Amino acid sequence: MTPQVVSSWVKAIGIAIPLGFVLAIILVVFALPKIEAVISVLCKLLSFLGPFFKRNAIAKDLRSRIMQVSEKINNEVGTEIVPRDLKIKWVKDENLDSFKQHNQIVVLIRYNPNPTANIVKAITQFVTRGLIPQAKIHLDSAMCQSLDLTITRKLLDASYNDAVPYFIEKILNPIISSDDELRQLIDNLFSID
Length: 193
Description:
The chain is built from 7 helices and 3 strands. The protein has 193 residues and is mainly alpha-helical. A 3-stranded mixed β-sheet has the order 1-3-2, with helices on one face. The longest helix is centred in the first third of the chain and has 43 residues, at 3-45. The mean pLDDT is 82.
């Protein structure tokens, strides 16, 4: 090989590595929900190996779907009312609060063998913590709770339709059965949509 050939190879590699790095970052940023969905399927296939894969399958699937649906809802409204990202952390304690960190909602939930229960609990916490937090400061608690429940239902309708009956039975009905004002607010919000 001549020095000119070696020199041209070095230049090509010197350009290709940074270009490849930039393309990889762009791919990850714009295709992250799809990447998470693929990882979820792989974890689901490996779930027979233990709880690590079962939990990751649920967490990755949730993240993928929430990212897609949140973007759709935010685009419909024209502003960001729901965060675009979440992270599931499996914990042993039942009563831990979720929190916002680095522009994503970190949802702390205890693993339940019923995947639907995990999904409903995670999305409920995601919405409660992440839905228009600055605006909620100025709203009364009934309005905040009705907004949370309505948007949770909307997210479930769009991403996990099979989980809606569980949400209605275990979360929504017990809350609104004893609170007529809250039921009326939720009915009004559902009728707007």
